[in-house]
Amino acid sequence: MPRHLKVRSSRDLGPQFTDNPHGMVGQDGAFSIPMEEGALWFFGDTLLGRRIPGESLWYPGGVPVGHADMSGKNGIRRMINNCGLILPAMDGRAGLRDFRYICDPAGDIRPLIPLEPDEDPDWIRVWCLHGIALGPKVLLFFIKVEMLDEGPFPVNFRILGSGLASGGSDEWNFRRILRNGASELWGAADPHFATAVLPDPESGWIYLYGSQQQASGEQVCCLARLRPGSVEDIGSYEYLSALTPAWHRSPERAVPVFSGMPNELSVSRNAYLGQYLAVHSYNLSGDIVGRTAPAPWGPWTDPVVLWSLRSERTRPLPYPVLVYAGKEHPELAADGGRILYLTYIEFEEYFPHLIEVTLA
Q1: Do 322 and 346 meet the contact criterion of CB atoms below 8 Å apart?
Q2: Residue 282: CA atoms inside 13 Å, Cβ hemisphere, count?
Q3: Per-residue pLDDT band at 42 (split at 50, 70, 90)
Q4: What is the reported pLDDT for 262?
Q5: Contact criterion met (CB below 8 Å) for 133 and 35
Q6: What are the residue ranges spanned by the domains of the chain?
Q7: What are the angstrom distances between the C-alpha of 66 and each of 148, 270, 308?
């Protein structure tokens, strides 16, 4: 009998990866990808250097950082669009320790999917989505964005599309998969696959969850599936076109399975609940929520709050509190899935923040 999703207790384990030898002073994203030994954690914009005491990373001297690459400015030595680390121990009880960043020969953190020569770092960024390891082969999904001069936040962008890069755990060199000469396999109007990857051993399918903004402004989640041997064959992907379920080869036919999440989430099979569990930030409210379903496509329950952040700033800033990137890390779960480990990003703190949730 499936259990209802209900929180018994929760515990704040604080910002993670702050104690590192590389001068890494902030990063977001924090997707985790189970591997044969440990997990690969995949991050978005990562800042190396130092923070200026008493100043916001995003409003140095009271001025928004805007669209430009932050390298060499306001204490930031270098800005990287994406990077990764290896976490060998699958235990979150005392926080995430003994991690190792993937570095270049000089020992500096390096991007896993670097910008191409025609991608201006002042305007184009390649940010992390989720991925999957199939033996030594690693597939990383990503989102490509164009930075904007104006908007409601100190950093603003529009999505150009999403794509996939293929590499291996030996040298961590990745090449983008191209279709018609472009690395954006899904366009700006398509669902952005894959913000969550769910291998399903029972069916043999790999399910991909992708976010999509509708004309109303509502953010929804769509679903695709593929066989493990066809990950790089984008034309073979099937998209959920009806909740019966029914599948179609065209992403334009994809239908939403639920709504209310930003670009990031996680989906896993939770043995304790006896159901599939999706975890995500709820809009930009500060709530991290969970939903359950008997099948990867649903029907998904209404969201249940797993953790709620109400941040009080010590200094006024001209943008609202921004909490995003909520997700679970299922490989860390304990007691058969009764104890969950979640991360989120609060933009001013700008580190993956770890929460332990014990279910009733």
Answers
A1: yes
A2: 15
A3: very high
A4: 85
A5: yes
A6: 15-269
A7: 8, 41, 29
**Rounded distance between C-alpha atoms, residue 348 and residue 335, angstroms:** 33
State how far the Cα of 204 lies from the Cα of 220, in Å rounded to an integer. 25
Question: Cα(140)–Cα(55) distance, rounded to whole angstroms?
Answer: 34
Residues 6+ apart with CB under 8 A from 272: 3, 335, 336, 337, 338, 359
Residues 6+ apart with CB under 8 A from 118: none
What are the pLDDT digits (tens) for 164-190?
999 999 999 999 999 999 999 999 999
Q: Residues near 319 by Cβ (< 8 Å), separated by ≥ 6?
A: 152, 153, 154
Q: Which two tokens stand for residue 57?
A: 């990373």
Query: Quick one: pLDDT at residue 204?
Result: 94
- β-bridge mates for residue 220, sequence order: 212, 259
pTM value is 0.96
Q: Which residue carries 């962008």 as its tokens?
A: 157
Helix (H, G, I), strand (E, B) or coil at 253: helix
CATH number of the domain at 15-269, out of 2.115.10, 1.10.10, 2.60.40, 1.10.1060?
2.115.10
Average pLDDT of the residues in 100-109: 97
The token pair at 146 is: 């164009």
Q: What angle do CA 282, 208, 343 make, to 5 degrees?
A: 40
Sheet containing 275-281: give its strands across.
266-270, 275-281, 287-293, 304-308
Burial 154-164 (b: 16+ CB within 10 A, else e): bbebebbbbbb
Per-residue confidence at 217, pLDDT binned at 50, 70, 90? confident
Chain position carrying tokens 């399975």 = 257
Helix (H) or strand (E) holding 326: strand 323-328
pLDDT digits (tens, 9 = 90+) for 221-280: 999 999 999 999 999 999 999 999 999 999 999 999 999 888 899 999 999 999 999 999
